[in-house]
Write a structure and sequence with these properties.
With 342 residues, this protein is an alpha/beta fold. The chain contains 13 helices and 14 strands. It has helices at 3-10, 62-69, 91-95, 113-124, 126-129, 132-138, 154-166, 184-199, 212-218, 236-241, 257-265, 291-300, 315-329; strands at residues 22-33, 36-47, 51-55, 77-82, 85-86, 98-101, 172-176, 204-209, 221-226, 229-235, 249-254, 270-276, 279-284, 305-310.
Length: 342
């Protein structure tokens, strides 16, 4: 299948992308280092044509996962496929259209950025040489490409690492903590670059990071990993909301808090209502659409409603809730799996 076909598929809803398969799929993936499990039975599904965040604290197993996917370390158990090819059995075919940065990108410091890319291109073939200039332009290094890499900042080396990935014209980019060393302006440019790769070019970007806020701003889908286990995965909005069955909450601003509380606590639409800095936090008994009934009940009771909106949980808040709950329920570190399905 051509990259143009992949790009056209990437714009389709998930329900219509079944024929395109998955960019990454693992089943029961496990990696032991002695008696320690760095990866513990990971089941992961990364759709094609999306920005996928692989989230977790330092030491959660993110880099080990990337090294295993790339065949740089052998799994102790389980199976995996990258772009439809089994790894490690079909590693060479899988990696032909994969670009990756694992930990800090390294280069020959006494060569320029452009010369470093030429070395890579010489190995990949003559058609790759033509991609050097566009790759440098894509990451914003055209004007600094002929300076020696030893003069590059950490952020510039990160950009050069992405440019090196682009030489493969990858269908899948795997990036390990790619915003390390970038200033706020560089981070914003990185976000825009990732979104363009996904939305305009149909690539898949697998982005490993411990910066939850950053991933929330750039990714469509994510998995949260802790202590070598995936504890939840799915669309960012679903994870932040808490998944199917999560309770619906409202922030309600009123002109008479006491009357509003009496009205809401006697309503069948409301599970709970408490004071907050913004007025009231109301937990609904039903779906978010129940909010219209809450508004009507307050107005009919003579309460002036000045604000009524859903409580918006960030991905970071959701992550803290999940890990706190797991720590409380699993004193020996055994984490039950939870999944939010797309």
């Amino acid at each position: 299948m051509s990259s143009a076909d992949d790009a056209s598929r990437a714009g389709l809803p998930a329900s219509e992308q079944a024929g395109s398969g998955l960019a990454i799929e693992t089943r029961g993936l496990t990696k032991h280092f002695g008696e320690r499990k760095a990866l513990d039975g990971i089941d992961l599904r990364v759709p094609r044509g999306c920005a996928f965040g692989f989230l977790g604290p330092n030491g959660a197993g993110k880099t080990t996962m990337i090294r295993t996917l790339l065949g740089l370390t052998r799994a102790s158990a389980g199976s995996m496929q990258v772009l439809g090819h089994r790894v490690p059995a079909e590693r060479a075919q899988a990696l032909q259209r994969v670009g990756a940065i694992v930990e800090e990108p390294r280069f020959h410091p006494y060569l320029s950025g452009r010369e470093n890319l030429r070395l890579v291109a010489a190995v990949r073939g003559p058609q790759t040489v033509e991609r050097i200039a566009p790759a440098l332009a894509r990451v914003g290094l055209s004007e600094r490409a002929d300076e020696k890499v030893k003069r590059y900042s950490m952020g510039m080396r990160q950009r050069l690492g992405v440019a090196r990935c682009l030489l493969a014209d990858p269908l899948l980019l795997i990036l390990d903590e790619p915003t390390n060393g970038l200033d706020p302006g560089g981070i914003q440019e990185f976000r825009e670059m990732v979104r363009a790769m996904v939305e305009q070019e149909g690539r898949t970007v697998f982005l490993s990071s411990h910066l939850l806020d950053e991933v929330e701003k750039v990714c469509d889908v994510a998995a949260i990993v802790d202590r070598g286990k995936v504890v939840t995965q799915g669309p960012i909005a679903e994870i932040s909301r808490g998944g199917e069955g999560a309770r619906s909450e409202l922030v309600v601003g009123v002109d008479d808090v006491e009357l509003a509380l009496r009205t809401l606590t006697s309503s069948e639409l409301v599970q709970d209502a408490t004071r907050s800095q913004d007025g009231l936090i109301v937990v609904l008994n039903g779906a978010p659409e129940t909010a219209a009934g809450v508004n009507a009940a307050l107005v009919n009771a003579g309460v002036g409603v000045v604000r009524l909106e859903p409580v918006r949980h960030s991905l970071e808040q959701r992550f803290l809730q999940i890990t706190a709950r797991l720590d409380a329920s699993s004193p020996e570190g055994e984490h039950p799996a939870e999944e939010v399905r797309a």
